[in-house]
Structures are given as structure tokens and as C-alpha cells.
Amino acid sequence: MLSYDPLSHPYPSQRHSVYARNGMVATSQPLAAQAGLDILRKGGNAIDAAIATAACLTVVEPTSNGIGGDAFAIVWTKDRLHGLNANGPAPASISIEAVQAAGHEKIPTYGWTPVTVPGAPAAWQSLSDRFGKLPLSEVLQPAIDYAEQGFPISPTLGHYWQLAYRRFSDILSGEEYRSWFDTFAPDGRAPRIGEMWRSPGHAATLRSIAETGAESFYRGELAEQIDAHSSQYGGFLRKEDLAAFTPEWVDPISVNYRGYDVWEIPPAGQGLIALMALNILKGYDFTDRDTVDTHHKQFEAIKLAFSDGLKYITQEDKMTTRAEHLLSDTYAAARRALIGDEALEPQPGQPQAGGTVYLATADSEGNMVSYIQSNYMGFGSGIVIPGTGIAMQNRGHSFSLDPAHDNRLEPGKKTYHTIIPGFLTKDSKPIGPFGVMGGFMQPQGHVQVVMNMIDFKLNPQAALDAPRWQWLEDKVIEVEPGFPDHLAQSLMRMGHQIRRANSTGSFGRGQIILRDEHTGVLIGGTEMRTDGAIASW
């Protein structure tokens, strides 16, 4: 178990971690957290609760994820970790040449071109088949009910929904986007905070997925509807791409950080970046969190890890260097040696050749789940399949059209993926799931939260509440409004270009659940930067 003072809380919110014994669900939306807890109380396990919460989030937080997105999970059950990669590939008919022939110099952000095969529905079914206790039809019922009967818009959700509506109103003018506005702005505007919103098409789709075990989505009526809309508007995705998709069970990868094993999903996920940064940082001794030296070394380690990750990470069997080479102690030492007293301009090294929701669940049986799913960039591609509520992801936007780049676009290839679940163990025993969603902030959030708990002895809630920073590019570091000014000034004198953000919106949203191995008590922290909630009993 992690060692910390449960009452210590040096940051302004003064919220404390939540304690419970029988079960816990932590996520960014209270209704979804409660839906997961209801499944636990009905006899479901942590895996069932994770599926219920994830499905519910596609309804009650559509600004961050949807049925047409991808998903990843790390599951502790039966005394070991299991990884699930439900990252859908590019369509078989797409290519660099085809995209360029359509007049694009890079893959567009919106429309059908960046749409890849959605993996989330298959993830729910795979998790249910392998580890669930309740039928998928029962587990998805809370999400179906919210979609059918409606729910009131929460504050953070309403804020981001309004921003997305304004942006989409300005830039999405084609007929292919009409269904997005019909679904998410039925009154000609975004729903306001406190208003009820419902989506009957969304409910019907979830019911179909529940009754057919996701078969309708990949090989049935829903697949036909997706294919027809893609064909009508020049998309590359076809029903054959959907039918060919199967999630992959994988072995999570890890580094040992001060006696704790930190686990991530292997590439094409960017969790490798968090592990590379921690591997560099474990060569230093840190005693205090809020010092110039601590932040300087964290900045430099993240910059070095990201420069490698952005160059090398893609579908694992297509990487020009293997993950174990990037995680070797020898390579970490070489990268660590580059860190001096001034901010560096990050460059990739030469190792040996070779818009998102996060949730955590735990139950009284010892099962724990770290789960994440996303449409990417909020609502995703702007494409919604008419009458279904299926908002399609734009994950293909991450591909490169440079034929020499490791992450170049290829038919059937999985792109560099930003969404990453994390997990901690010690001496082959589970400590618990953690995650921080938010695009390229995610590995940076993982590093900061892990160090907050392990190096600086902060309890889960304090570890999440602590002021965050994020590397943007070159020597540019953005810090939250609450970041100490004296540290920012000192770091600027070391060559860091510090920018103070106006809000906390871009610094990720995290959840943590830990288990005390002696008592079985669960300790949870949730995010103050959103409508975060922990449901427990």
C-alpha cells in the first residue's frame, strides 16, 4: 500500500479521499458513477460496473466520448493484470495517395476521412464475455434509460457542449454534418445547464448492441447504416472493415519506479511516454514537490520522452524500435545525461534498432478496472449516423501522410493513440487503477499523479488536486492558474517559456482508486476540474 497522510491536503480544494469497503466507481460524471455502483449492488463485479459506466458516459458526457470511439482497459482479476486494446484500424481502402488525391496535404480533422473503425462496443462485449457476471443487456440498461428518458445537463458538460456547438456551427457546413446538429442541438442550440436532453436514437442503438452482443454494430443493421452514410459522403470506412475488427487482449508493459510497478497498455498507445519519463526520473532523488529542481527535471524528462514517442510510437509491429529498447535502463541513463541546468530543445534519441473519459472501478472480490474511451477532440469527426446517436471518432487525424514517418497512414493500420489507462502494483499485488484523460496531457498527467503519490506521499485526492503543468512544444510549458508564481519565475530564468493558462480545462481529468491490501478498504480520488464523482458503498 502507498504510504501517505490521509489528512494532509496542501491544495485549495480541501476535499478528502473517499473510503469504502464493498465497491467504488470513480469517473467524471455523477450519473455514470451511480450507474456503475447500481450494477455492483445488483451483483455485478467491477468489470460489469466499468462497462455500465462507460456506456452511460456515451450518453451523459457525449462531449468527450461516444459509441463510435475507441477504448482501452487494464483489468486486475484472477490475481493478474489483463490488458484490452480496442483500438480500431484505418479502413482497408484508405492510403496516403488516396487522401492526397482528395486534395489534402494532411489528414483533415472533421468529416469521414479521419474516421477509423470504432472499438468501444466490441470492448464492452469482450470484457463482458471474459470477466463479467451479468448479461450485457442488464449492464447497458442504465445507459439506455438515460438516453430514452433524458437527464439534466451538468455544469462542466454544458460548458463544453456550448463550446463545441459554437465551433461546429462555424466550421461544419456540409450536409454530412446535419445529423450532428439534429442529435446534439435539436433546438438549434446546445442544451443549457440544468435542461433535460434525451436521444431516442442513442437508446435504440445501445439496446441493439446489448441484445446482439455488439454483432449489429459490426456485422448487422448498424454496420449497414454506417456503411451507407460513409459511401454517400465519400468516406473510406466500409462494413467489411467493421466486420473484420476484433479487440486484442494484450500484456500491459511496465517500469519499476521506486519499488512500484507502473503499468500501461503497449503501443500504439502513448502510455510508453509516461513510462520513459518515469524511467528517466527514477535516477534522481526528490524530496519536495513544489521546488524549481523537481519541476525542471520533470519538464525535461517529459520533453525527452515525448520527442521519442512522437517519432517512434505507432502500431507495435510497425515500430522501427521496440518498446523494451525505449524502456531499457541504458537508454534512460543516456537520455537522463542530457538534462542540465537549462531548458533543452527536445530531440528524439537513437535507441537500439528494433476529448476522452476515464473511469476506475473496484469491488469487494478484489477485481479492479482502469478504463478509458474517447471519440478524440471532444465530439470527434462531426459525423453522426442519422437516427442512431453514433458519433464517429476522428482518430485517423493522428496519422502522418509522410511516407517516411513511423506513424504513416497505411490501410488497416492502428495509429498513435492518445488514450491510456494506468495501473499500480507492488510485489505482484494490486495497488489500484489511475488515469488522467486529455489528449497529449495524458502521459504528463500520469507522471505527475504517480510522483505525487509515490515521491511526495499525497493521498489520492490531493494527488489529483495538485496544480498541473503540460509541455506544449519546444521549450514551452503551460501551467495552471494555481501554479506558484515564484516557481514559474525561477523556471523562466532557466530557459523554460512558461505560459499561465486562464483555466484548468486543458490539464486533464483524473480518477484514482487504491486498495489497502490488509483491510480491503478502497480509497478513491476524483477530479475537481470536471463534474467528477465517486459512488461507493
TrEMBL record:
Top-level taxon in the UniProt lineage: Bacteria
Gene3D superfamilies (UniProt xref): 1.10.246.230, 3.60.20.40
Bilayer-spanning residue ranges: none
Pfam name, any one: G_glu_transpept
SUPFAM superfamilies: N-terminal nucleophile aminohydrolases (Ntn hydrolases)
Assigned keywords, A-Z: Transferase
An MF annotation (GO) of this entry: transferase activity
Name the record gives this protein: Gamma-glutamyltransferase
Gene source species: Paenibacillus bovis
